[in-house]
Amino acid sequence: MRRATAVALALLMAACAGGGSDVGLDAAGNLGESSYNLDANMPDDADVMVGERRDARSRAIAHVELAGAYYSQANMGVALEEVRIALKADPGYAPGYNMLGLIQVELKDLVRARASFERSLRIDPRDPDANHNYGRLLCQIGQVSEGVRRFLAAVQNPLYRTPARSYAAAGACYLGGQRAEEALDMFQQSLRIDPNFVPALLPAAELSMKKGNLEPARTLVQRFNTLTRPTPESTWLLLRIERRRGDAVAEAASTALLKQRFPDSDQAARLTRGEFD
User: Which CATH number characterizes residue 248's domain?
Assistant: First the structure.
């Protein structure tokens, strides 16, 4: 009887303190440990702030993912709105500014895109995706050296999953800047990481051919044609390599393929005019 009275009194006191709903008995009929500490489940200001930050970050992540989905569907208006919602929820979420920069590039707003990538990288300087995307923009506006520096910053991150992509992009950037030797080195770096990285194969083959390295060039084009269907570009390049190698039979095979499959291509027109170089 005394035990029941004590339990009832403890429950009443807890309820008066505002914690009655959290007070309970264990299997033995004793008050649980938390019942003695009525403030144990009451969050302090710091806990509230942490919870709010977590909620804000979760909202930002979700809206940036939605923005990426709309971006991939070329729906830039909705993608832009989603990323704005994300950054309003969490202004410190670096991938949000990276996504915003990508959208602004598509909208030809390069000045704002540059500012967005730079803000993303101020928050997270090692983010490989932001470095890669900023590198692409810099190369697009003719800042070759700075663009390549960004690609190399991306590949230095050990958690980056696609370094072959950034090396190939650096090669394309150097190529656009008429720096063939450096471009070939970057394409070769890409192919050392992933020998089947398709975007690097034909540029590496073209540059190797121009240096007189015909066998490696031929191998790269053949690998390209194995991994994907032959294109006018790959067929024309292989034709020219075979011509330089002096293999008349192989050259004739590529000539026939170019005429039959791609008769209206620029490459077929160059063949007709005899413009092999």
Answer: 1.25.40
Three-state SS annotation for the chain: CHHHHHHHHHHHHHHHCCCHHHCCECCCCCECHHHHCCCCCCCCHHHHHHHHHHHHHHHHHHHHHHHHHHHHCCCHHHHHHHHHHHHHHCCCCHHHHHHHHHHHHHCCCHHHHHHHHHHHHHHCCCCHHHHHHHHHHHHHCCCHHHHHHHHHHHHCCCCCCCHHHHHHHHHHHHHHCCCHHHHHHHHHHHHHHCCCCHHHHHHHHHHHHHCCCHHHHHHHHHHHHHHCCCCHHHHHHHHHHHHHHCCHHHHHHHHHHHHHHCCCCHHHHHHHHCCCC
pTM: 0.79
Distance CA 237, CA 262 (A): 14
Q: What are phi and psi of 31, to 5 degrees?
A: -65, 135
User: Would you write out the chain's pLDDT as a tens digit for each of its 277 residues?
Assistant: 444 334 333 333 333 333 333 333 333 333 333 333 334 443 455 455 556 578 999 999 999 999 999 999 999 999 999 999 999 999 999 999 999 999 999 999 999 999 999 999 999 999 999 999 999 999 999 999 999 999 999 999 999 999 999 999 999 999 999 999 999 999 999 999 999 999 999 999 999 999 999 999 999 999 999 999 999 999 999 999 999 999 999 999 999 999 999 999 999 999 999 999 8
Q: Is the dihedral of CA 108, 168, 130, 117 positive or negative?
A: negative
Domain that holds residue 226: 196-272
- Is residue 266 included in any domain, yes or no? yes
Q: Is residue 268 part of a domain?
A: yes
